[in-house]
Amino acid sequence: MDVLVSEWLRLDQNITTRAEIEELSRSGNEEELRTRLADRIEFGTAGLRGRMEAGFSRMNDLTIIQASQGLCAYVLQQNPDTAQDEGIVIGHDHRYNSERWALLTARAFISKGVKVYLHRGLVHTPLVPFSVGRLRAACGVMITASHNPKNDNGYKVYWQNAVQIIEPHDRGIAESIKANLEPGPSAWSVDDVTESPLYFDKTEEMTELYLDQVSSQIHDKSVKPPSTMPDAILTERACRSLQPLNASTDLKFVFTAMHGVGYKIAMRAIETAGFKPFIAVQAQQEPNPDFPTVPFPNPEEKGALNLAIEEANKQGADYVFAVDPDADRFAAAEKQADGKWTQFTGDQLGTLLASSILDRYKKSGKPIEKLAMVASAVSSKMLESMAKAEGFKFAECLTGFKWIGNTALNLEAGGYDVKFGYEEAIGFMCSPEIRDKDGVTAMVTFAEMTVASRAEGKRLSERLNDLYNKYGYHQTKNGYFVCRDPEVIKKIFARLGSFPHYSSTVSSAAYPSGAASLPLTAVRDLTTGSAYDSETEDRKPVLPVSGGNMITFKLGSAEEGVQVVMTLRTSGTEPKGVIWLPIFGDQE
């Protein structure tokens, strides 16, 4: 352990994190030192994400420098002739250390002669992939831990296709990081980053263009400008601002940014789209890295929307909208006729958004077989049922928007028009220009649907029931447990494939034969080392095995008209074991 302590102290120039390791060493806390220093933080699903502390396995100045040097070296290796001029887009949120780590990332690239588009101030995550695409950059980095607890931070990487990295780039970057661990001579110096001739500020330009694409997702073109208005200012945005799209209804919306960076961009988007101003939850309006009113800043968590619902009741509002702290995820709740509130699940939001987008596409007159939508493997099968009934293309992929985004690009390359993608963890892709989850664009799209539905005399919960009646009732039950020991997780998933007292009709392997009263009808095992799918001819899964743990069991009863798709997997960003139970069958 002394060797690891000495190596840390040799490399680290941050006095705070140096002091942490020195104190642990002085106190003889071998267990904590081993936890912090024995392993490196893994570069994986979301780039880097973890607790902000000293140590090779944590998020800190040194690991950010090492990751940035490795990423830069990999980018230059992959595109030696163009990468320096294409550059990198960098953004950061409001968490502790985020601004400094964005500057350290910029320094690593500038030191190698690479152009840097460093967004000024706090930005929401979707602006980074949007900017990568518009600026045709070589890659992008967003410093954020999204909805994680306040002590966490992260380093999210986008490739030149403006989508989160997948294989082989994730492995290549991880290896490049290991080969570039020694900080360069100027690695710790950030004071003069913005004075470099390689530094460019495109923040406002990209923000305006982003707002234009948000506006383009609004499909109600009925608002007309006065004929006396000069042609020079008859822009789409100006036309919309003349009369809010919800002017014909009495709907009120309450919005919460969950102490994150979403308030300003969301309000600008609402104004751009032509809605009445939303009522903000002031206690959660401004960015605050301590997240004082919520123990866990995730709109999905029980109680996270309590303040917003209280404000909505005071204001007589009909809907509560929320984005998570980096504004890439969206949540919503609706007040019912009896005064009670219904918070929509991610699958319900996805179903409603998909139905609205489907209706628009059908009205456009375009061939329905060219339309495509994407959902993750742990999301509800409702979207698949809709596709079968309506004739559009449905594609399933692994969990996470790195897979959803890349699946969308592959479908586009095959001639499909990909209008929507989602995962049940309230992540929605509603714009063909951003192949990542975007809470602001999803919110504006959802708001338009809300107004249109209410104009027809229906709440969205009623619209959702109509969809169940048309395509079949689908319900999702999910939950999770926390386990921080990788060995225990391995044993859990190994046991799921080794039930010695059971015999399955779908596999020679010892998977369980059923659950409760339902027999097993199919199994797909994407756990590393297993790679089995009973529904394919060669028994090999179509979906890739990406180094994690994930098993899907299909259970069914023809007599009861019920099918259960049960997926057990580990989270890519948190120490969670997650269980999804998307259940669907007849309405009754």
Topology:
Elements: H1 2-11, H2 15-26, H3 30-37, E1 48-51, H4 61-78, H5 83-86, E2 88-92, H6 98-110, E3 116-118, H7 127-135, E4 139-143, E5 152-159, H8 169-178, E6 199-200, H9 203-216, H10 236-241, E7 253-256, H11 262-273, E8 279-280, H12 306-315, E9 319-323, E10 330-335, E11 341-343, H13 346-364, E12 371-376, H14 382-390, E13 393-397, H15 401-413, E14 417-423, E15 427-429, H16 439-455, H17 460-471, E16 473-482, H18 486-496, E17 514-515, E18 518-525, E19 532-533, E20 550-557, E21 562-570, E22 576-585
Parallel strand pairs: 2-3, 2-4, 3-6, 7-8, 7-9, 12-13, 12-14
Antiparallel strand pairs: 1-5, 4-5, 9-10, 10-11, 14-15, 16-22, 17-18, 18-19, 18-20, 20-21, 21-22
User: Percentage of helical residues?
Assistant: 25-40%
Largest sheet: 7 strands, antiparallel
Could you name the CATH topology of the largest domain?
Answer: Alpha-D-Glucose-1,6-Bisphosphate, Chain A, domain 3
**So what's the overall shape?**
globular
InterPro entries: A-D-PHexomutase_a/b/a-I, A-D-PHexomutase_a/b/a-I/II/III, A-D-PHexomutase_a/b/a-II, A-D-PHexomutase_a/b/a-III, A-D-PHexomutase_CS, Alpha-D-phosphohexomutase_SF
Domain Alpha-D-phosphohexomutase alpha/beta/alpha: 41-180, 246-335, 346-471
Cofactor: Mg(2+)
Protein name: Phosphoglucomutase
